[in-house]
Amino acid sequence: MAKAYFRVRAVVEVPLRQKFDRWYGDHHLPMARAAFKAEKAWRFWSATEAGVHYAVYRFANRTRLDAALKAPSFKELVADFDQAWPRGATRTRDILDGRAARRALGQQKRLEKIEAPAIVKPSRDLLKDREARPASKQQTLKKAEPPPPPGPTFAGVQVDLHGYRPRDLKGAPLASILEQAWQMGAPRIRFIHGHGRARGKRNMSRGFYKTNTGALGISIRRQLRRYRELRQWIKYSTLDCSEWGRTTVKLKRNPRRTRTALDLSVLPPRTQQL
Question: Quick check: is 65 in a domain?
């Protein structure tokens, strides 16, 4: 459903412009937006017509706009304006719908060279309260935290599988590496298998979407996803295939670590030259 816009055009005597601008921004516009329950509100001055001020309120649809104009709060807004400006400022109202409203506002901005719009500003009292309010514990901790060290970091175990073929790592070799990483208490393990022949391509494979890797990477990912015997060490559905040439999977928590390093001798000899 198309958006609906409510526009108020006020003509203010030039000597009263500064006073009107302060009153409208600090008092009337926040009050109007809260009363209307509008999605968004803008206000701006015309750069070609002296003393012409615009305020625009956006609603989700025309039904909500009509309901806002019929509510008692709208009469309170009118009374608030009349009380503050019994003379020196006159206004007219208009309702704009959907694309026609956006086009009209765009043309109006181009023709009248409207000055930069002012977003709804919090009142001065609210700003003072925020400045006087003590910082929360979370904000204090954020300021006290040192900046992170430069460069990429990875919390877990990495295994370089360059030089292997898919058949070299099927079954027991991959399972043994996963078990060792779990025994070390690592939170995750990353297999670096390279791009293969998929460099620059958007590979498609059954069970995977845009894998961005070659045959070795697909073989490893297929085992991690489909072999149920591997789930005693890895968390199900945690396979991360977002990085080209690398596959990461989360490991289950091990409260009793029994190993400090991987024993890569369980892998067969590399069948390809590095």
Answer: yes
Q: What is the pLDDT of residues 31-80, one digit of tens each?
A: 888 888 888 888 888 888 888 999 988 888 888 888 988 988 888 888 88
Torsions phi, psi for 23 (to 5 deg): -65, -45
Q: Which residues pair with 91 in a beta bridge?
A: 10
Tell me whether residue 133 is in a domain: no
Q: What CATH number is given to the structural domain containing 76?
A: 3.30.70.100
Residue 152 and residue 179 in contact, taking contact as beta carbons nearer than 8 Å: no
| Separation between Cα atoms, residue 137 and residue 157, nearest integer Å | 35
Q: d(Cα 46, Cα 233) in Å, to the nearest integer? A: 67
What is the model's pTM?
0.41
Query: Which residue, of 100, 124, 148, is where some domain finishes?
Result: 124
CATH of the domain at 231: 3.30.1370.110
The whole-angstrom separation of Cα 94 and Cα 128 is: 36
Give domain status of residue 44, yes or no. yes
Judge residue 186's burial from the number of C-beta atoms within 10 Å of its C-beta, 0-12 exposed, 13-18 middle, 19 or more buried: buried
Q: In whole angstroms, what is the distance from residue 115 CA to residue 128 CA?
A: 28
Which of 156, 246, 154, 159 shows the shortest CA–CA distance to 194?
246
Pseudo-torsion of CA 205, 207, 213, 219, nearest 10°?
-100
3-class SS of residue 185: coil
pLDDT at 269: 85
The full DSSP string for 127-174 is HHHHHHSPPPHHHHHHHHSPPPPSS----SEEEE-TT--GGGGTTHHH
Q: Structural domain of residue 108, as residue ranges?
A: 4-124
What is the number of domains present in the chain?
2
